[in-house]
Structures are given as structure tokens and as C-alpha cells.
Amino acid sequence: MQKGQIRVHTENIFPIIKKFLYSEHEIFLRELISNAVDATQKLKMLANSGEFKGELGTLDIEVKLDAAKRTITISDRGIGMTAEEVDRYINQVAFSSAEEFLSKYKGDGASIIGHFGLGFYSAFMVSERVEIVTRSYREGAQAVRWVCDGSPEFTLEEAERPWRGTDVILHLYEDSLEFLEPERIRAILLKYCRFLPVPIYFEGKQINNTEPIWIKRPSELTSQDYQKFYKELYPHYDPPLFWIHLHVDYPFHLNGVLYFPKISRNFDIQKDRISLYCNQVFVTDEVKDIVPEFLMLLHGVIDSPDIPLNVSRSYLQGDPNVRKINSHITKKVADKLEEIFKQDRKELEEKWEYIGLFVKYGMMTDDKFRERAQAFLLMQDAFSTSTWYTLAEYREKAAPLQTNQDQKLVILYTTDVDQQYSYLQAARDRGYVVVKLDSIIDAAFIQSMEEKWEDVVFTRVDADIPERLVKRDESSHSVLTAQQEARLKELFAKEVPNPAYRVELKGLSPETQPVVATRPEMNRRLKEMASMSGQAASWYGRIPDELVLTVNTNHPIYQQILQEQNEEQQRKMIRNLADLALLSQQMLSGEALNQFIQRSIELMSGIKKSSIILPS
């Protein structure tokens, strides 16, 4: 029997490994199974190169629990170790056998997971004692047993093992007995080892898919294969809209499949659905620095051996391969969307309710993507569900009438066709083109695009009277005298005392409504964005609901009102006209709405207020 001390390459690293190397103790199982997979893959490579000529037999890994002995055993039929190799690779912390193996078999080592030499020692986070019983694949090799209690002391002696491979036996701490619960182990295996390339058995059942679709080439797969894999990943989600298969060998290695899901209105809850793998070992689902921010709503898997298992945020932010992967994913998404737009625009239009969120979010946050996406950004006509415009198409159709005094294209939009119907109709009567922008992201999208597109402004159809939606240097003429206008101002001041409602007189077309209620674009937009971002209590969120009541002095009803001798009747008519305008903005309710109904009946019938009984 050999006794000795583990030779640590970095002073005092052993207690650091034991207590602080991994933030989550469950990682120990991932690390030990990864080592077992490495040992198995190494044997396959030696067999392929002719260095191992024996029978491979069944190559799988088994995880066994023994509650009575308080042990977890991870067994493999891989390359195994001699006493010399145990001394070299286990007793010398931070000297990685995988690194040495890769240097010898350059070009063939893509499937070797462990590049660290520290993963094995994660076992001591949960174990008071660890045993290794191993036998090398080499002919005539003697099996050996290595035992360590978590201190630098160890023992190494000959042992009995009838076949090659390695058993790692963990004797658990009292406070780690949760790992003897089968459901706990099964959950960890499914999380970290679900797609490892070597069969893994637990309680007699294989728990992993050794050939996930991302390791295959797209030419080998059908649409059904992609749909089936999505169902395997997300059994409770609707089928995806479409997917992108990633496969890069140079200048970095990357494989994966990203799915465009159907996004609900509350899309925040659907983030963190992309899993990062390293050679089929799960690393994390926090991929913010690897995947562009606007694609965090995608689902799927990315796998890159260029990103290590023990990944940290600072590493991701500074690593050049991560930046390349990020750019590549952006390009592939833009390529896919452009391909659909050119080959089957109808499909893009039908799915735009969901796809539009990705595109608009990307245009807001990624300048390179915005440049590409301008070609396939779609906007639906407010009056026709089958008519869609790209930015270029909208410009061509709308520019003659919707170019303002600053030579900017005015994109007119609605957020609610039913609520804003009268404004839409007035805009259409003037020959304007109006689009629907009613998604949860559109308020922020509009603001962002106005900053990035210097020759475009967005205006909601109820932001101003129809004549001023596209601002030009135009004068208006009122048929009323100055004395008559002064009287109208006096009447409206009495009947609309709310300081948040600004009344202005304007000579408009006689066909335009007598009073038009509009919401100034910028104030309304700031309030919407504050509400969407959860900052309703902020300064922006507390901006009053400003409303402009534009009185059309050229409407013939004012001649009638001004000729009315009964001032009370005059004021009722003025109040009703203002209420009609407020009603169009859904700003009349409760008592005010009831009074409007009663007053309207009085005006139409001449019946006195006291004799009216309305249903409750």
C-alpha cells in the first residue's frame, strides 16, 4: 500500500476546491459523469486508431445509490487507470489528463469534455470519503484502489476488479444525504447529462439521448425531427413557428438549434429558455452574453466546446469566441428571416404577430440587425388584414401625402382599430395610409426608430385633428367673427373646466366633427413607456392625461348654438359636444356618462330634466 500527500500545483488550493470551487453542490455529479464520458470516449478513439485491439463490449455509465452504506457510485467501462496514472492524474491537482490526451491526439479530441483537472475534486463538497477502484485497458494491468478523506492524505493499493474501467464511490456527509434520494439524482442527471454521448443508466433505465439533433447535419433531418426534439425539450409548449440550425467549424466551433416560439403578451416569463452545452454537457441557461439580447426569447440549444463548463460572467464578457458566436447567431437569424420573406412572404405575414416581437426588439438593440431587418420589417394596414407594407413600400405609397414640412415621412398608426375608428376613418378620407402598431413592444419601438431613422416620424391617428396629422405650413380660415369666437371660448371654459383638457378653436372643414379630442403624441407615448416598463410611479408616469379639444368653428352647428337665446340650452349643447369628443377617447364614464345620456335625451326631446327617469 502506498501512502502520501496529494501534490497541489497551487498553494492551498485544496480547501478552496473543496468549499468554494462550485456554487452549487449538485455539480459534482455532472463533473464525475463527464470524467466517465471522457474515459469512454478515449477508449473509442484508441480503438479507432488501432492502439486498443480488445473487445469494446458494452460502453455505458451507471449511477447507483446505496442508502444503507450512504454511497453513490459512478461506474464506467472506459479507459481506466494504472497506479502510475492515478498518482499522476488524481494526486496532482490541476494537472489535467484530458489536456495531455488532447495534445497527443490533436484533431481528434472534440469529444473530450474535461479540460480542467479539478472536476473530480468537486466530489469532496458532498463526500467525507472518496474511493476510486480502477483498472486500465492495458493488457495485464493491475486494478488499484485510491482512498482519500478530503485531507491531503491518501492511500493507493492493489485491488480486485474483473474488467477495465473505473468506479468512483462517494461516502456522503450527513448533511448531503439529500443526494441519496432517487428523484433528486434523476433530476440532476436530466438537467446536466440529458444529451451526453455515452448511455447513462440509473435504476436500470437509460436517462439520456446520446444523439440529439444538434450534432447532426440539417441534411440528415426532417421537419418532424425538429418538431419532435422541440417537444422533448418543451413538452408543454405550442409547436414552434420555425427553427434555425447552427453549425460552424471555423473560426470557432458551434452547433445548435434555435426555435422561434409563439410568444404570449407577457413575454418576460418566457426568457431563459436557451440552454448552453459544452460537448453535450449542460452548462447553464443564462446565456445573455452569448445570445444577443433580442433573441433571449428564442428557445433551443447551443453547444460549443470553446466555452468551458466552469463558465463565469466575466469570462463570457471578455472572451473573443463568445463575441464571434453572438455575431454569428445574429447573422443566422437575419438570414433565416430574409429567406422566408423572399421565398414565402405570406408565411411571414401570417406569423408576424409573434415574429414581429423578435424583429422589433432586435432593431431596437442591435444596429447591424436593424440594417438587415429594415428590408423585411412588416406593418399591417389598419383597414385590411391581408395588406402589409415594408418600410420601402409604405414610403412609396404614403410619401406624396404624408411628407411633412420638415420633409419627413409621417407613419400614421393605430393601436386599437375599434376604439380609434372615427380617427382612422377621418385619416382614410384624406387619403392617408394607416398601419396597426398594437404589440406590447411598439411604444418603445416607435421611439427608438424615430431616433435611428432621421427622415421618419410616427404619429397615432388620434394625436391631432386630421388636418394636422401631417404638419404643413397651412393657414385655416374661420367663418365666425372674433366676437363669436370669444363667446364660444367663454362657453367651453365654463363647460370644460378640467385643467388637463386644453380647448383651442380652429377653422376646419365643415365636414370635420364639431369637437375633436386628441392626445398629444409625446405625452401619451412617455406615459405608455413608463407603464410598460413598470415605472408608472416615475416622473414620466405622473404626467397628466393631457387632452386637446379642438373646436371646429366652421361646423354649422355653432351658428345654431350662437343663435340660441337660452343660455342654459347653449351650455347643454356645448357640454354635449365636448362629451361626445371625450366619449370617442373612452374618457367618459360613471356619473359623467349618465349625465351625458340624460342631457342628450333632453336635447332631442325637449323633455325637462325633472321628468326623466333612467333605468339604473
From TrEMBL:
For this protein, the record's InterPro entries field holds: HATPase_C_sf, HATPase_dom, HSP90_C, Hsp90_fam, Hsp90_N, Ribosomal_Su5_D2-typ_SF
In Gene Ontology terms, what is one molecular function of this protein? ATP binding
Residue ranges of domain Histidine kinase/HSP90-like ATPase in the record: 24-176
- Is Chaperone one of the keywords UniProt gives this record? yes
Q: Pfam families recorded for this chain? A: HATPase_c_3 (PF13589), HSP90 (PF00183)
Q: Which UniProt keywords apply?
A: ATP-binding, Chaperone, Cytoplasm, Nucleotide-binding, Stress response
Which residues, if any, are the signal sequence?
A: none
Q: What Gene3D superfamilies does the record tag this protein with?
A: 3.30.230.80, 3.40.50.11260, Heat shock protein 90, C-terminal domain, Histidine kinase-like ATPase, C-terminal domain
Which residues bind ATP per the record?
31, 35, 76, 81, 166, 313
In which family does this protein belong, per the annotation?
Answer: Belongs to the heat shock protein 90 family.
What is the protein's given name?
Chaperone protein HtpG
